[in-house]
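Backbone-to-sequence.
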């Protein structure tokens, strides 16, 4: 029970990696608030989560531990403040802030739109700033506070047609290191995880080159591609990411780290 009685607020917690982090935190004894977009956002390249997924995840994880949900749009300062307020009201504070909400889009620089670029940076980069700022007072009140940002292996190396996403994730690592320096005096540690390839909506509904239209076919193509690419021969899972977050949230002398969890695909 490495996180016994600590309070974790996880953005983008309705599904995917955020859900895996929520489950791992619950299993480690934390009280968990998952936060995600309020409604179905149809305005992006693939479907993002909303209150439906929040409710489903709460129902699925309720037997594991104490979990509640709230809505948040991490690109909006007031919404971030409201999510922190809801967490403090529900559980009495915030000890572990996981800035996990993120979006991806890809395409050549020649045709990539300014709107795509701005939205990626608004969620993946400014979202970390706004949520961290909103949670700062609560984190300063905690005796054992940590921020864990979900960056990416795309924050350590560039990929063609991914300049916006990679730029936003390099920035996430820079913010992690800066805040680790800045908040050390407050006893607040700041770390990042760098997931490798996890078969979530980002991959299955957007990045994966596949002709399959059904879930089973997409899953099979994803598994086969990752088996070829990744030294350990398998894609990463939300549970892998949860394990890494629990470690970074509980290791008392670790700050400023960007931990790759990528089966050897990225070793820096
Ligand atoms: P996902 O699409 O399943 O999860 C992202 C979550 O963020 C969704 O629930 C979505 O509704 C939420 N979200 C999006 N915009 C938001 C906003 N403005 N405010 C609040 N919530 C918002 O995808 P996945 O893979 O679980 O992504 C989680 C994080 O992991 C992201 O930061 C992503 O960039 C990162 N990541 C994912 C990798 C992968 O292979 N799937 C690899 C490396 C990093």
């Amino acid at each position: 029970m490495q996180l016994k009685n600590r309070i974790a607020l996880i953005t983008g917690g309705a599904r995917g990696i955020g859900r895996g982090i929520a489950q791992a935190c619950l299993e480690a004894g934390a009280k968990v608030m998952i936060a995600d977009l309020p409604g179905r956002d149809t305005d992006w390249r693939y479907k993002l989560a909303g209150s439906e997924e929040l409710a489903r995840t709460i129902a699925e994880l309720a037997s594991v531990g104490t979990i509640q949900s709230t809505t948040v749009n991490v690109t909006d300062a007031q919404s971030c403040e409201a999510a922190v307020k809801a967490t403090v009201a529900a559980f009495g504070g915030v000890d572990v802030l996981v800035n996990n909400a993120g979006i991806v889009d890809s395409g050549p620089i020649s045709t990539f739109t300014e709107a795509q670029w701005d939205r990626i940076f608004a969620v993946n980069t400014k979202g970390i700033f706004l949520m961290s700022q909103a949670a700062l007072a609560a984190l300063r009140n905690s005796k054992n506070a940590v921020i864990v940002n979900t960056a990416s292996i795309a924050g350590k190396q560039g990929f063609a047609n991914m300049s916006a996403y990679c730029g936003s994730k390099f920035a996430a690592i820079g913010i992690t290191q800066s805040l680790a320096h800045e908040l050390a005096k407050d006893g607040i540690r700041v770390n990042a995880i760098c997931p490798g390839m996890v078969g979530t909506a980002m991959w299955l509904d957007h990045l994966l080159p596949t002709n399959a239209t059904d879930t089973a076919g997409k899953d099979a193509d994803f598994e086969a591609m990752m088996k070829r690419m990744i030294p350990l021969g398998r894609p990463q899972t939300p549970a892998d990411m949860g394990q890494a977050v629990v470690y970074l949230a509980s290791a008392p002398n670790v700050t400023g780290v960007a931990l790759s969890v990528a089966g050897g695909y990225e070793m820096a």
